[in-house]
Design brief:
The chain is mainly β and 157 residues long. It has one helix and six strands; from the N terminus they run ββββαββ. Helix content is 6%, strand content 42%. The chain has a five-stranded mixed β-barrel with strand order 1-3-4-6-5. It starts with 6 loop residues before the first strand and ends in a 50-residue tail after the last strand.
């Protein structure tokens, strides 16, 4: 049977990224991302809130980009997989941590508060897209060779 290990989160950075380099020169960036869930209590009707903190690890070029552009408080989209690591602490006790190994990242929100100047053509995944092109005004649509040009656009598939 096939299995899937995929995580998608959208949240805010809890601290500035920490970028380190392995002895071989590969970049590793660690961040902490908060996601918040809101709901209404059924009995009291009060609004409830729960914040979950996620450890996220970026590697290589994505780690360098994350280290340069992510800042505490900024919203971010992260896509990756879960990985649990085990190590021994100072007392020799086994310790576990589960992290999201990031495979994709996209900055969300505005560019306000970002370092590194403005302009440039590469928005490094800023979450913006160009407006969809529009047909020129005043030109009639071309007639279809199939004869279906007068049908409604409400096709059920």
């Amino acid at each position: 049977m096939a299995s899937v290990n995929k995580v998608i989160i959208i949240g805010n950075l809890g601290r500035d990224p920490e970028v380190r380099y392995t002895p071989s020169g590969s970049a590793v960036c660690n961040v902490s991302v908060a996601t918040t869930r809101n709901w209404k209590n059924r009995e009291s009707g009060e609004k409830q809130e729960e914040t979950e903190w996620h450890r996220v690890v970026f590697y290589d070029r994505l780690a360098e980009i994350a280290g340069e552009y992510l800042k505490k408080g900024r919203p971010v989209y992260v896509e990756g997989r879960l990985k649990t690591r085990k190590w021994q602490d100072k007392e020799g006790k086994d310790t576990y941590t589960t992290e999201i190994i990031a495979e994709q990242m996209q900055l969300l929100g505005s560019r306000e508060g970002m370092g590194g100047g403005g302009g440039g053509g590469d928005d490094h995944g800023e979450g913006r897209s160009a407006p969809a092109p529009r047909a020129p005004a005043g030109k009639p649509a071309a007639k279809s060779a199939t004869g279906f040009d007068d049908m409604d656009d409400d096709i059920p598939f």
